[in-house]
Amino acid sequence: MSDPAGSWNPRALPSQQGRTIVVTGGSTGIGYWACEQLASTGARLLIAARHAPKARDAIAAIRARVPGADVAHVPFDLTSLASIRDAASAIAQLGGADVLVNNAGLVVASPRRTTTDDGLELEVGGNFVGHFALTALLFPVLRDRVVGLGSLSTKMVRLDADDLMSERRYSPFRAYAFSKHAVHGFAFELDRRLRAAGDARKSLLAHPGYAVNELSEKRPDVISNSRGWQRLGGYLSAPFAQGKDHGAWPVVRAAIDPSAESGEFYGPRDMLGMRGTPVAQAPVTSSASPEFGARLWELAEEWSGIGFDLPGR
Q1: What's the CA angle centered on 173, arms 132 and 32, to 5 degrees?
Q2: CA distances from residue 283 to 195, 212, 286 in whole angstroms, order as listed
Q3: Closest Cα partner for 135 from 174, 96, 172, 93?
Q4: What DSSP character marks residue 165?
Q5: Strands, sheet with 20-24, edge to edge from the N-terminal-most edge strand
Q6: pLDDT confidence of 10, banded at 50, 70, 90?
Q7: Cβ(286)–Cβ(156) below 8 Å
């Protein structure tokens, strides 16, 4: 485990000059803050996001704070395999990437079960299958590592590996937690397969803790104004929460820490994993198990229609 004492300083990041980092969903929330922080390292940033106007606003906000930042937008819809193929092709034509941060996600699930453009349950189909597809398509031009965005919800909802698509029973938070169990399972299974293939590239995972807009620095052009009850809730949560600017810290560490080891999982250092500087943590046992990972990989290939074989394995 790298840096067990947690000496990483999120306010003094190592140079990433000459490297390209792709961040999905980088136009708002945790993704935006990760992009702003990564831009300060000199990295070239590609924001893969659905809404072009939001992406333009995010790029303008980053450049206002990081003069000369190299940031561009790649159209990307996590819930459409056709869009994901187009995005992967565009990124490859731009020279590929050193780091892929699979940050985008649907956090607030629909009250009723809905599906992606390809007929998959929206949460698992987008948050997991969409990122599995993007990773598989980009892997031939990915030079260093891939980072998945995990969640504390995996500690709150027990995994039902036989009902990941919520076909037997659906509830919004259950579906969201299942998507994050799958994100966890994919990250750890990819790490196992990389090691088995003798591939030096890395698969890591990070989670932001309990991060809310109301405790973040202000970015009015890219972060939506909260409603009154949301602002109140955010301020009341201050003793055990943090802003999304700090919630991005574990993601940034997983993306660029040169000492990070494949298979590590970063999150806030307080005892509940809700706030603080990023340190390596342990995942829930179920979503990290090899049995779940192997089965999940098979399902992802079936659901996406994309084979993901590592050379040498």
Answers
A1: 55
A2: 19, 22, 9
A3: 96
A4: T
A5: 70-75, 44-49, 20-24, 97-102, 142-149, 202-206, 265-268, 278-280
A6: very high
A7: no
Residues with catalytic roles: 176
Rounded Cα gap, residues 198 and 141, in angstroms? 17
By C-alpha distance, which of 69, 107, 62, 34 is closest to 219? 62
Instruction: Tell me how far apart the alpha carbons of residues 207 and 278 are, in angstroms, rounded to a whole number.
Output: 9
Contact 98/45 with Cβ under 8 angstroms? no
d(CA 260, CA 128): 23
On whether the pTM is more than 0.90, the answer is: yes
Q: Which of 108, 147, 148 is nearest to 128 (CA)?
A: 148
What is the SS3 assignment for 152?
helix
Q: Six-digit token pair at 8?
A: 């990483």
In angstroms, rounded to a whole number, what is the distance separating the alpha carbons of residues 110 and 293? 27
From residue 261, alpha-carbon distances to 79, 188, 258 in Å are 30, 12, 8
Q: Is the pLDDT of residue 64 over 60?
A: yes
Q: Are 256 and 13 in contact (CB under 8 A)?
A: yes
pLDDT digits (tens, 9 = 90+) for 187-230: 999 999 999 999 999 999 999 998 888 788 888 888 765 665 55
Domains of the chain: residue spans and CATH = 20-304 (3.40.50.720)
Would you mind telling me the total number of residues written for the chain in this entry? 313
Compute the distance between CA of residue 35 and CA of residue 48 in angstroms, rounded to an integer: 11
Instruction: Write the pLDDT tens digit of every residue in 142-184.
Output: 999 999 999 999 999 999 999 999 999 999 999 999 999 999 9
Find the DSSP H helices in the chain: 29-39, 52-65, 81-93, 122-123, 131-138, 172-197, 228-236, 244-247, 249-256, 285-288, 290-304
